Amino acid sequence: MDSVLIRCFKCDAKNLLPVQQLSGDVRCQLCGLQVFQHQKAGIDSHLEEELCSYCNSNVDPDKIKSHNDVCDMYPINCRFCNREFIRQTMNVHERECDRNLRWCKYSPIGCQFQGTQLETEKHEVGNFHGELVMKLLLNLQTEQSSNATVLARSLNELMSLKDDNSRRNSSAGVECQDVSPSNNECCIKMKAKQDNMEEIISKQEIKIEQQTDELMAQNTQWKHEYGIDSLVKDMFDQQSEKVQRLEESLTTCWTVIEELTKQQTEQCDKVENHENTLNAVITANNCLTKSVAEDKKFLSNKMDDLSRKQNDLEDDLARDKDKLDKNCTQQNEMRQQLEKVENNCNKKVDEMELAWTNKRSSFEFVWKVENFARVQQSAKSGTRTVVYSDPFYSSEFGYKMRLMLYPNGNGACTGTHLSIYRQMMKGRNDAVLKWPIEYTGDVTILDQLNYKEHHSYKIESDLIKFREYYAKPINEFNTGVGFPAFISLEKLKPLYLVDDAIFIKLEIKMN
């Protein structure tokens, strides 16, 4: 059943009420201050919120999936190594991931290799870039020659154009002095065009000088960035070293060949000596063969004797084997009987372990409240509004707790309902138990008339809303949690209140 926790602003008391009971105003159970006014829309909107399990922020249940798509603490997989990281740190990891593809540092001069950090470092150490460097060097030299030619041609054209304009300017001035006033306007226009042309030429000269400086600076920068001069020199030095090593290897090979020729001559002499020795050995071997034939005949006679003895032994072995087979049959029968006994023992042990496990993980507690009329009258008069059961443990070394009963109701349910709460207490074994406690179960008021219409409520540890109620007690007991409106007082008779007594049963199963 969904419940709502309401805190008093005056005494800081906490009241746990079912949502279905919030149909009117609610007052604090301790000080009586009004702490709630019925506002259905506000409560519903609060109950609809859920807590994100990754970033602990409140999220609309309908938007949980879209929230996970943007949540900074949501785990996602790296697209390179498939390892899992939270979204907030994924960008940093991808930049440092060992399996992220990187370009070769010689890519600006044409190398197209891509690979992981280890593969790229191995590739850059190899001699794969000599041709690219030479090609770049030739292109730079060609480009420099072409740029120098273009610049020289442009400067010559500009100088010629400037001289022509100067001559035209001088001749135009003389003509303007000789012309009549009617042609003065034409001279002025021509002079303006000449001035405009000189301005354009000056701008072109400045632009060409700037481009020349830029080309020279770019050339210097390329030499500095790629180390072309030093790289080519290093390549030439490496080739020279390789040639020198090859010459040294060739000299060594000739020395080895001469040594092998000398050894071959010595081997031929040794072979001739071995042939002479072998002939002597063959002669001795013929004599030995004759002796072996005589020994073979002697051994054949011995083998016949041994064969007869072997037959006798095989007959004895056959008789012993029959006896052994009988013994094996008896042992197999005994082994089967032992296996049956062992299986029965294992089955009984499993049953005992299961029973012991169930006994440790679940328990029942029945509380009989006698003299209910007197207890309820004390609650109505305010003398004793709450009754406590005897403390009990969930098992021999388990959790300590007790039940709380408000005979005349509690809070907003005073005078209308029976209120029942569960309360965790400080126990002797708290130091070795798991906290907060997690369990499920039922709270039941028993039917004493028909024994089948019991009135029950499901209970479960809510560690999100009411975690502090199930935490390890710091004081003698925690705040109680339960049902203010457990059952209407009008429904107690005749099923549940019999002989001025009621029975409350608590069933709990540990998770």
Automatic annotation (TrEMBL):
Q: Which residues form a coiled coil?
A: 194-221, 257-355
Compartments where located: Cytoplasm
Q: Which residues form the TRAF-type domain?
A: 66-114
Q: Where on the tree of life does the source sit, at the highest rank? A: Eukaryota
Q: Which GO terms describe its biological process?
A: regulation of canonical NF-kappaB signal transduction
- The MATH domain is annotated at 362-508
Its cellular-component GO annotations read: cytoplasm
Keywords, comma-separated and alphabetical: Coiled coil, Cytoplasm, Metal-binding, Repeat, Zinc, Zinc-finger
Q: Which Pfam families match?
A: MATH_2
Q: Does the keyword Zinc-finger apply?
A: yes
TM region(s), chain numbering: none
The reply on keyword Zinc-finger is yes
The TRAF-type zinc-finger regions cover 66-114
This protein's major location comes to cytoplasm
List the GO molecular function terms: zinc ion binding
Q: Which InterPro entries match?
A: MATH/TRAF_dom, TRAF-like, Znf_RING/FYVE/PHD, Znf_TRAF
Q: Do you know which PANTHER family this protein is assigned to?
A: TNF RECEPTOR ASSOCIATED FACTOR (PTHR10131), TNF RECEPTOR-ASSOCIATED FACTOR 4 (PTHR10131:SF94)
Q: Which named protein is this?
A: MATH domain-containing protein
